[in-house]
Amino acid sequence: MDVSGKTVLLTGGTAGIGREIARQLKSKGAHVILTGRDPERLGAMQAEGFEAMAADLSNAAGVDALVAALGDRRLDILINNAGQLIDHDFRKGAPDPQAADAGIYANLTAPIRLITALVPQLRARPEAAIVNVTSGLAVAPAARQPVYCATKAGLRFYTLALREQLKGTAIRVIEALPPVVDTQMNDGNPMNKMPADECARQIVAAIEQRRDEANIGMTRTLRLVESISPALARRMTLRF
Predict the structure, then answer these.
(1) pLDDT, tens digit (0-9, with 9 covering 90-100), for 127-137
(2) Residue 158 catalytic?
């Protein structure tokens, strides 16, 4: 897919991987509408020439407001990138159930609702794409992040089924599975981290090449191990 001239809705586009995706798509001639929650970050992206919309995707009202603001605008690519890392570790104390609810909504329910609302606009285009950013942890979970892993695994299986449903249409359904990336979300993670701009580059390349999956960095190794022995893949990740 040639992204030049395409209109892209990118959720979570003011920091980390999303910000780098936005910059790279813009440099290739795409018009990027990005969402975020932080007013300062939204303002910074507007100063870079992006169309930025405030949106809290951790609840139904926020998703509905975003869909209403978009109206019937032309849309060629939807990138569900926004996500929340939920601290849910009983070894550290009692987890916050409200935080878990918000994370489940942002990571899983919001992408499903956005896809449901926007597929008609995407179908109207001669070529279109839906990109769901999951995680290597959608393949095998880490013990300290069970809610995050569950939501990303859920989005992975939703993506696989959606791709089958939309087979033969103009909409390409792409899953991007990043490894641990050097973003604010992973500030406390001691593991080696991929630079956000390189992760974004590989996601954009998957869109351009119309690939079904982008297994990025160490996720490629994890996917290989998982194809041979799912139990071994789980042992590798559960210790984290």
Answers:
(1) 999 999 999 99
(2) no
d(CA 149, CA 172): 25
pTM recorded for the entire structure: 0.94
Find the catalytic residue in 9, 148, 178, 215. Answer: 148
Which distant-in-sequence residues (6+ apart) come within 8 Å of 147 by Cβ? 86, 88, 95, 100, 103, 104
Return the DSSP state at 233: H
Cα–Cα distance measured from residue 22 to residue 51, given in angstroms and rounded to the nearest whole number:
10
Q: Give the pLDDT score at 184.
A: 62
d(CA 215, CA 88): 26
Amino acid at 181: V
Can you give the residue ranges of every domain in the chain? 7-238
Per this entry, what is the length of the chain?
A: 240
Q: Which residues pair with 80 in a beta bridge?
A: 132
Instruction: Determine whether 211 is exposed, middle or buried from the number of CB atoms within 10 Å of its CB (0-12, 13-18, 19+).
Output: middle
Written as one letter, the residue type at 39 is P
Mean pLDDT of all residues belonging to the chain: 94
Beginning with the edge strand found earlier in the chain, give each strand of the sheet holding 128-133 in spatial order.
51-54, 31-36, 7-10, 77-80, 128-133, 171-177, 213-215
Rounded to whole angstroms, the Cα distance separating 66 from 80 reads 13
Does residue 206 contact residue 213 with C-beta atoms inside 8 Å? yes
Give domain 7-238's CATH number out of 3.40.920.10, 3.40.50.720, 3.20.20.190, 3.40.50.1000.
3.40.50.720
CA distances from residue 213 to 45, 46, 48, 176, 225 in whole angstroms, order as listed: 28, 30, 30, 6, 17
Q: Are 24 and 201 in contact (CB under 8 A)?
A: yes
